[in-house]
Structures are given as structure tokens and as C-alpha cells.
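User: Heme-binding protein, Streptomyces thermospinosisporus:
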Amino acid sequence: MSTTTAVAPLTTADAEALVTGARRAAEAAGVSVSVTVLDAGGHLLAFRRDDRAVLISGETSTRKAYTALQLDAPTADLVDAVQPGGPFHTLPTALDRPLLFIAGGLPVRRDGRLIGAIGVGGGAPEQDHAFAEAAVAALG
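Assistant: Predicted structure for Heme-binding protein:
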């Protein structure tokens, strides 16, 4: 008989902390961003739109979060793999949403298990990735 250890799910308080962490990192860099946080089931837990950011950044941050969640990998790790003819080029999407392979989306894990994802949009891809990393690191 096997036992499994329960892992606490991503809570709304966690999601708010992720949004705050990403926002603070972006503000320190002088960048306006939109931030999306999803739980492990792909449900939206938190979203922050910055009206000073490019309007598309909200949709971009959401797609980045879905990509990170669906593939359980940082979107930055996928950039080189997602080329015509590459392994992810024709990957079907379980959530019926287009995948956006640009750095800035990260899976969120607790005790090694996937519990959600964060997506950041509004800066350069490398900046968005760094803002997402800062948010996940601050969550602990």
C-alpha cells in the first residue's frame, strides 16, 4: 500500500504574493507589466493589468502562464525548441488556447509538484522571465 503526501494547492494569497513579487521586480526595473497566475487546473487565480503597459501584455501574460502550465516548463526553456519542424511546433493544446513561446512564463511548484503557473508580459522577454523568477523566488 502506497501513501502519497498531500501538497497544499496554490491559494489566492499565494497568487497575490506572486503578482506583488513580479510587480515589484518590474517597477524596480522601470517596466510596466501585466501578471497572470493560474492554479494547477488552469483556473485564473489572479490577474493584474497595468494600464501603462501595452494593451496586449494582458493576453500575453495569460498565454505565457498557460504555456508554462501545460508544458510544466519555463517558457524561456522552450524558445529554441519551438521552431518550424521542432518538437513543439505542432503540439496540440489541451486547454484549446494558442501557446505563446516567449520567455516570461514559469510553472510554480510546491514540494516538487506542479501547483500552478505565472505569466508576465510587458517587458522584453528576458525581463519578463526575470520578473517571473523573482516572484516565484519570493513565494518560497
